[in-house]
Amino acid sequence: MRTPPLLTLALAACLARAGGFRLPLRASAAPPPGAAEPLFSAPLPGGTSGRVVVPAPEVLRGLLNDVLGEVRSAGFAAGATRTLQAQRALLQTTLALSRDAAFRDALQRRQAPDTRSVARALRLLFEKLGATYVKLGQFIASSPTLFPEDFVLEFQKCLDQTTSVDFATVKRIIEADLGQPLSALYADVDPVPLASASIAQVHAATLKSGERVVIKVRKPGVEEVLKTDLAFLSIGTKILETFAPELKRISLADITADIKDSMLGELDFNQVFLFFSQP
């Protein structure tokens, strides 16, 4: 069973095969002066200019330190738990697809499913995997110049069909955060969310003063899931760029770092408050 981030990396291969997937390339840079020569280097099959390498020991040691740092930041227990969650998500998605007549017929004929079916399969899997992958699905839905039309249309369901958390859980989160019963703070809180996104959901409420407000509540477990997924996504890109240096041309590690900073920034509601408090 692959870890969740590698499922994300596999998405690129699916999209490329489906057609229409483009990533901005940068010029391949020569190794810096004094860079250690790899222990082994061989061309990739298929007549491409890329190569796969076994890096020098000092490069491998640096990679190992990076990997251990990411694992420590996420937590060993969180990584194991997330892997089990990924296995369950993959099983649930497989069961759902087994009931899809078009997908099942294509497999029975030993044919590759069409782009629409592949997009639906990935969207179902992403939703089962949770917040990180729903955010990636939203990125696909918002990037029609990068992804095939069938993927963009299918992943638009991630923009407005995110599953909400039940109100009893929301109530417990608010009361634990503010240290008071909900009834002591608000005259009324609508149990039906105004909106539900991958990281949080919003409820309309009325203060004791009669002022109408909204409450934004972070969904339980989201922070741990995001940090774990993004740590292993970072590990995956670093490993790929170490053993296949030509992949640095598509800036995988840089893209991952940008995604990580953006997603983790959304966890800090203080930043959101300061933004909307500005005159």
Q: Quickly give the structural class.
A: alpha+beta
Rg to the nearest angstrom?
A: 22 Å
Strand content: 5-15%
The proportion of residues forming helix, as a percent range, comes to: 55-70%
SSE order, one letter for each helix or strand: HEEHHHHHHHHHEEEEHHH
Major β-sheet profile: 4 strands, antiparallel
The gross shape turns out to be globular
Q: Helix segment count?
A: 13
Low-confidence stretches: 1-30
Mean pLDDT: 78
Please provide the count of β strands. 6
- N→C terminal distance: 50 Å
Tell me what you see in this structure:
The chain has 279 residues and is of the alpha+beta class. It contains 13 helices and six strands. The strands form two sheets. Strands 3, 4, 5 and 6 form a four-stranded antiparallel beta sheet that branches. Strands 1-2 form a two-stranded antiparallel ribbon. α2 runs antiparallel to α11 and α5 runs antiparallel to α6 (131-141). The longest helix has 23 residues, at 76-98. The N and C termini lie far apart (50 Å). Mean pLDDT is 78; it is low at 1-30.
Topology of helices and strands:
Elements: H1 4-18, E1 40-43, E2 51-54, H2 57-74, H3 76-98, H4 101-108, H5 115-129, H6 131-141, H7 149-155, H8 157-160, H9 167-178, H10 182-185, E3 186-189, E4 195-196, E5 200-207, E6 212-218, H11 222-243, H12 252-265, H13 269-277
Antiparallel strand pairs: 1-2, 3-5, 4-5, 5-6
Helix pairs in contact: 1-5, 1-11, 2-11, 3-5, 5-6, 5-7, 6-7, 11-12
Summarize the structure.
The protein is an alpha+beta fold and 279 residues long.
List keywords for this structure.
279 residues, alpha+beta, two-stranded antiparallel sheet, globular, disordered N terminus
